[in-house]
Amino acid sequence: MERAALVDKVKQIAEPMLRSLGLELVEVEYAGSQRSGTLRVFIDKEKGVTLDDCEKVSRYLSQALDVEDPIPHHYTFEVSSPGLDRPLRKKDDFIRSVGKKVKIKTSTPIDNQKVFAGRLADFKEEKMVLHLEGGKEVIIPLDQITQARLEVEF
Question: What are the extents of the domains in the chain?
């Protein structure tokens, strides 16, 4: 099975299960060869993920994956939180992150720049408003974002 199809299949299995547990599927990654690999499932919830959450998801999802068998060979399975510098991919990720520091990479330059760091001031109508360090404001359309992450604040 192609890597993208495998990841999609795991998402289809995981999302309803995670919703029923009050959790959100952040990302699914599969790395490895035809003979063995590592499947990583990143989960989150509003007040943060606990070790118990990871263990529960690992147990339940592992059983579901054994039944569905989307990966026909040996693999290592990991469940984790996305961390403090979590990726932002969906509209809800951006809306939830308004007021926080982010780092954004775009597919095409905006004001002769492709990498931006600042505070996410607003997100609406498929566009984000980012306040940069020097006080400048930039508007970035969602469809131009190739990578976005929260920045760790201390």
Answer: 3-80, 91-150
